[in-house]
Amino acid sequence: RTPTCTMPWLPEHKGRSKWILWNELDMRDEREKLQVAQFLARMQDKIRSERPELLPAEDPLRVSADDILIDASSPRVRMEEAEARGYVRLARQQAIKSTEIVLSQSMVSELVLKTTALLLRLPSAVTLEAPREDSPVTVVGDLHGQMEDLDHILIENGWPTAANRYVFLGDYVDRGECGVEVLVALCAILLGCEPGAVSMIRGNHEDSFVNQSYGFTQQVTSRYSPRMVTLFNNLFAAMPMALKIEGTAILVHGGCPRRVTSHGNIVDWSRLEAIRRKGVQTMVPNDTEDREIMLDMVWSDPDKTVGGRQAIHNHRRQCGLLYGRGFARHWMESEAVRYIVRGHECVDKGWDLMECADGMGVMTVFLS
């Protein structure tokens, strides 16, 4: 089940043209901001290597993942469903009354720290059992700080349970005005539901460089202390990069990682499970193999014009890959699934399918 988004007031061809134009403008904006981030990262590295005395020895606001002393195996990390629903109501209330702080800093920091501890126990690529026919999985695309959309989805599809699972594809913040409230609600739901009922993976906006440019950092510091920005970015760094539902689909924010082995194979699932994501608050620059794979998974896009088993540089975003049907199919065949389900990209009907033959395909789910 995937939420859809349509524009019924426009003729179909005009609506599609508007979506394409919006998408191209959005990609150009992201590309320009990413280029600035990459330049600043290179400058910082250069200063660090040549004039280290000009940089602070340690960020006084930084909270390392190693400093999180919460035991994720403790029953106290989890909460009762009633308590989780209470946090969702408070998040909804704060989203409506945007000038009023309903969620105190202590409440938010406790939720974020507990969720971070819980997510750090997971591998970087998570595997779930295939769903039964009577156990649907609701896949939610980019929320981008839209609390109303999250509310609508929960009302329409019901509270998450083991028989009603949810997977969120990343990009929880930026653009919209309620990134904090969306994260509070999702953290509470994750902590208040039985294990496996809710899964969250990382998107390209769960990155300290990116969310500093698109508004989330400013949202946080307008209500809470700067320390909270670091806590949220540690939460993002704890999120897995991908999820596989056995025999069915790979779920990822952007798409396929590039081939990194000498014999030309796409990296296998065990390699993705072992990605060192802990404490990686930004994936820019891609100066290690792990960061390169992470960037590919959150920034890449499918492209029907890319032939064969090829993937090329994503010139539209200046980051990640453009991958064709053959490349995507190779990854699906190697992991014995039929679909890649991803977000990241605006599509005119709320979803789009790039068919890859033999019943396989890459499905894009767009929400906000």
Question: What do you see in this structure?
Answer:
With 368 residues, the protein is α/β, with parallel strands linked by helices. Helix content is 40%, strand content 12%. It has helices spanning 12-50, 81-96, 105-120, 147-157, 179-192, 208-213, 216-221, 227-238, 269-273, 289-299, 325-335; strands at residues 125-128, 137-140, 165-168, 198-200, 242-245, 249-252, 301-302, 311-313, 321-323, 339-342, 351-355, 361-365. It is globular, with a radius of gyration of 20 Å. The two termini are 17 Å apart.
Describe the structure in brief:
By secondary structure, the chain is an alpha/beta fold.
Chain-averaged pLDDT: 85
Count of extended strands: 12
Class inferred from helices and paired strands: alpha/beta
Whole-angstrom Rg: 20 Å
Number of helices in the DSSP assignment: 11
| Proportion of beta-strand residues | 5-15%
The description of the largest β-sheet is:
6 strands, mixed
Strand adjacency order, main sheet:
1-5-6-10-12-11
How helix-rich are the residues, as a percent range?
25-40%
Order of helices and strands: HHHEEHEHEHHHEEHHEEEHEEE
State the separation between the terminal residues, measured CA to CA: 17 Å
Shape: globular
Low-confidence stretches: 3-10, 59-69
